[in-house]
Amino acid sequence: MVLTIDREPWESADATRLRAAQRAELDARYGCDDHEPGAAPTAETVSVFLIARDPGGTAVGCGGLRFFAAGSAEIKRMYVSPPARGTGVATAILRALEQAAHDAGVRTLLLETGTAQPDAMRFYEREGYRRIDNFGPYRGEALSVCYARDLP
Q1: Is 129 exposed, middle or buried (0-12, 13-18, 19+ CB in 10 A)?
Q2: CA 113 to chain centre
Q3: What pLDDT, on a 0 to 100 scale, did the predictor assign at position 35?
Q4: What is the mean pLDDT of the chain?
Q5: What is each CA distance from 92 to 31, 125, 129, 152, in whole angstroms?
Q6: Sheet of 4-7: strands edge to edge?
Q7: Helices within 9-146 (DSSP H only)
Q8: What is residue 124's predicted lDDT score, i.e. its pLDDT?
Q9: DSSP label at residue 92
Q10: Which of 42, 78, 57 is nearest to 1 (CA)?
Q11: What is the reported pTM?
Q12: Which of 44, 116, 134, 148 could form a disulfide with 29 if both were Cys (CB 3.0 to 4.6 A apart)?
């Protein structure tokens, strides 16, 4: 699939719609709406937010970066709409996030996913992320699974 991936404001209509769809899917998987430890990401804390669009201009996926001190950042709100899964959208978004992080001087990308998301765990492992001890607000959280990748 030919995609365009661009930065968009956190509050844009498509960004809001994609994040709401992700939230609804995760709420259904976990059976509750309290499955993400720590402070919820916001426009102030996720300074890079990318939207992937298909050739017709439809927003089919998203992902963001929350920057930390000491050359690291966390991937937040990675999501691909169900009809676009398996078409390379997730990989394209991930590579664009990695490039944006690299351009910003990030050396290590971190992320958190959950135990009810085996598809996400397989994806990140396939894409070169290694499982790490839970970090930050995810320490001690039984539903959290954390990963990292050092950027070239």
Answers
A1: buried
A2: 9
A3: 64
A4: 94
A5: 30, 15, 15, 17
A6: 4-7, 48-53, 59-68, 72-80, 108-114, 144-150, 130-132
A7: 13-30, 89-103, 118-126
A8: 98
A9: H
A10: 57
A11: 0.94
A12: 116
Cβ atoms within 10 Å, residue 3 = 19
pLDDT of 71-112, one tens digit each?
999 999 999 999 999 999 999 999 999 999 999 999 999 999
Q: Determine contact, residues 105/71, Cβ cutoff 8 Å.
A: yes
Q: H/E element holding 67?
A: strand 59-68
pLDDT at 34 over 80: no
13 by DSSP, 3-state: which? Answer: helix
DSSP 56: T
* Secondary-structure breakdown of the chain: helix, strand, coil percentages, each rounded to the nearest 5: 30, 30, 40
Q: What is the DSSP letter of 38?
A: S
Bridge partner list, 144: 114
CA 109 – CA 150 distance, rounded (Å): 6
C-alpha distances (whole Å) from 122 to each of 3, 6, 68, 112, 147 are: 23, 26, 25, 13, 11
